[in-house]
Amino acid sequence: MRILYFDCFSGIAGDMTVGALRDLGVEESVFLDALAALDLPEGLHAHFHRGERQGISGWKFHVHEHSHNSPDHSHSNPDEPVTYGPVRSQKHSHGDHHDDAHPHVHGRTYAQIKRILEESNLSVAVKRRAQSIFHRIAIAEGKIHGVPAEEVGFHEVGAADSIADIVATCAGLESLGIEQVMASSLIEGSGWVHCAHGKFPLPAPATLALLEGIPLRQVAEETEFITPTGAAILADYATSFGPMPAMRVQSIGYGIGTRETPPRPNVLRAVLGESAEDETPDSVEVIETNLDDITPELLAAATENLLKQGALDVSVSPAFMKKNRPGHLLSVIAKPEDANRLAHSILKETSSFGVRMHSARRKILQREFLTVTTPHGDIQIKVGKMDGKVIHATPEFESCKAAADARGVSVQTVFRAASACADSLFD
Fold first, then answer.
1. Which residue has the higher pLDDT, 147 or 3?
2. What is the DSSP string of 206-220?
3. Cα 348 from Cα 96, distance rounded (Å)
4. d(CA 267, CA 7)
5. At CB < 8 A and 24+ separation, what contacts does 132-137 make?
6. Would you say 278 and 12 are in contact if contact means Cβ atoms under 8 Å apart?
7. C-alpha count within 13 angstroms, C-beta hemisphere, residue 105
8. How far apart are CA 232 and CA 224, in angstroms?
9. Distances in whole angstroms, Cα of residue 374 to Cα of each of 33, 36, 334, 338, 377
């Protein structure tokens, strides 16, 4: 399994995440092409530069307007107050128009951001993931300010630079073919932050709401280590939080923040590798429940949410229940440490009154993603190996579908071409 582990010893922000992915080897064009697919203000400019924090070298990601004197307008700039919260009307001091004090902040509603993403030329996967992240933020902000999620407007997360951070992160992770994102336990400072509605103690309200259910502790350092954008990215992608899992490290990337934050370097470390769990059998938990009174829509939503929450696999099988009622058998495979959380999710999101749980042993193939070139474009191939030998090589459907849509051919045509290339991977 291809794993990306975020080591958040100095927290996480959107620009640091993009910088870390760049340092892992994601080409700059991947990020810039994703931003070019968005309908963002003219004059917006994004670029990278190398820098260091307390002796650690990494990439810094900048998004700014050409009119600015300084290239750095990230959320972590200590000279610029953070602004976020609902925009009640155009008369708000940081509404849809540029404000003289903060000309780079664009007030946008959640509906406007959804429309920007939906009308973009981003891949389906990137588009949906970015929408999911913004949906999380809308729910968090709406809960704080007492408004429905659909009516929430944003300052900090609605600014073009934060949209760019989120979209660039999604594009970078897609290009790496990541199967699972994990992160260290999180720390946050204990100082104060300036928000659109005043001064609030850390963690900032939106950040804390986004990290609900995620391990978090404060340190006696007056620094905001986790931004709302960084919190939303982790909440949507990371399936577990704690020490780095057993993995074969392939590359390490560092994304740097704006400020110096001694005693800890203002750096996000990203570790890319493959799970080492294929070397020996491991234990998993199997969670099952029978369902005979759930709608197809709710069942589909539940299975999707279980996968987002870290389930290793989710399947639904037809079943006959008591009194010969047709129903479904919902089966979930989970890591032991995730089993209770996922069982609670099943009970909350389905009509089930109880679940069955038992332990099982499994052995899995070493997995990786490769890119092959076909007459219809580059296609991702999922490869399974045993003892270093290729056992399976299968084209990824979404990659084939995207190429088929772009070239105006059938998915089957692309799949056949990709399968022919995959055959060359076998010894």
1. 3
2. HHHHHTTTS-EEE-S
3. 39
4. 9
5. 132/236, 132/308, 133/166, 133/170, 133/232, 133/233, 133/236, 134/110, 134/166, 134/232, 135/110, 136/210, 136/232, 136/235, 136/236, 137/110, 137/206, 137/210, 137/228, 137/232
6. no
7. 23
8. 15
9. 21, 25, 36, 40, 5
Q: SS3 of 380, please?
A: strand
Residues comprising the chain, all counted: 427
Contact present, 78 and 223 (Cβ < 8 Å):
no
DSSP letters along 155-198, please? STTTSHHHHHHHHHHHHHHHHHT-SEEEEPPEEE--SEEEETTE
Kind of pairing, strands 2-7 and 180-183? parallel
Beta strands at 198-201 and 192-195: parallel, antiparallel or unpaired: antiparallel
Residue appearing with tokens 């970078």: 172
Quick: pLDDT tens for 101-122: 233 334 577 888 888 899 999 9
The closest alpha carbon to 313, from 285, 290, 277, belongs to: 285
Share of the chain above pLDDT 90, in %: 58
